[in-house]
Amino acid sequence: MVDNVDIEEQDPLSEEPELTKEEEAKMGYCEKLHYHISRWMLPEHARDKYLERANCCPPPIFIILISIGELAVFIYYAVWKPQKQWVTLEDGIWNSPLSYKPERREEAWRFLSYMFVHAGVEHVLGNLIMQLVLGIPLELVHKGFEVGMVYLSGVLAGSLASSIFDPLNALVGASGGVYALMGGYFMNAIVNFREMIPLLGIFRILLIVVIVLTDMGFALYRRFLTHENGLKVSFVAHIGGGVAGMTIGYVFFSSYNQKLLKDPRFWLCIVGYILFLVFAALFNIFLSPAP
């Protein structure tokens, strides 16, 4: 006698079988893309629901538009303005109304607009590559609103953290947003590790750790060990963006197909982030040592 087995009672942590070549050949290009994205980004229990409603419309428009904007601003200052900043940062770039400068922090838009200005070709290319590699798959799964909220929360947290912990130095670059994406993706990889393909989970975590350590190493070197002329750029935005990603990003990127408003983690992260914003605003108004 053969026992009946309820599919829902099977071990939810068992590894999902891969498609055969015949099954994959029957898929369209968009279906193949979403199938592989789901195996990379989502735990097994969420993949079927994602694949049921996945499509390429709308495309990952937020991260693409942000990247185009950042590249356009870089080209504008490198080609049409006499900045000569193809390789490294020069003092002239600080005249931009987009850069964050502690003495101009009353111009509140600078706490966000600094993400469009970069300190050289290696700076802008590094940020663009990372945010496209991470942001496009994230936006295919979680759509533009969620990715946009995480990205911008990292940009804002980066500049505010810099204004508190490194208040006398200026700030340029989209590293706060990039680190927010990495922070949220890292937490997703940690939380859902047992439900992902083991080697894939280990690879994702190690890749993010290596990238962060390498980038932070260069940032600290440029900040404290180089003796180049010009203004020093704060590195605290990396940390602020990463923390925002591990809180705001963690909730958005680990709660696929769930109602966030009923999740206490959502409110804990939102309230914590708002309290940080209020404290940072009060610090900049009443306590900052910057002129």
Outline the structure in words.
The chain is mainly α and 291 residues long. It has ten helices and no strands. Residues 1-15 have low confidence and may be disordered. GO terms for molecular function: serine-type endopeptidase activity. Its main location: membrane.
What level of helicity do the residues show?
Answer: 55-70%
Radius of gyration: 21 Å
Shape: globular
Judged by helices, strands and strand pairing, the structural class is mainly alpha
- The run of helices and strands is HHHHHHHHHH
The low-confidence parts are 1-15
Number of strands: 0
Amino-to-carboxy terminus distance? 83 Å
Attribute tags:
291 residues; 63% helix; mainly alpha; disordered N terminus
In brief:
By secondary structure, the chain is mainly alpha-helical. It contains ten helices and no strands. The longest helix has 45 residues, at 121-165.
Give the secondary structure arrangement, pairings included.
Blueprint (H helix, E strand, L loop, with lengths): L20 H5 L3 H13 L2 H10 L7 H20 L29 H4 L7 H45 L9 H17 L6 H28 L10 H18 L10 H24 L4
Helix pairs in contact: 2-3, 2-6, 4-6, 6-7, 6-9, 6-10, 7-8, 7-9, 9-10
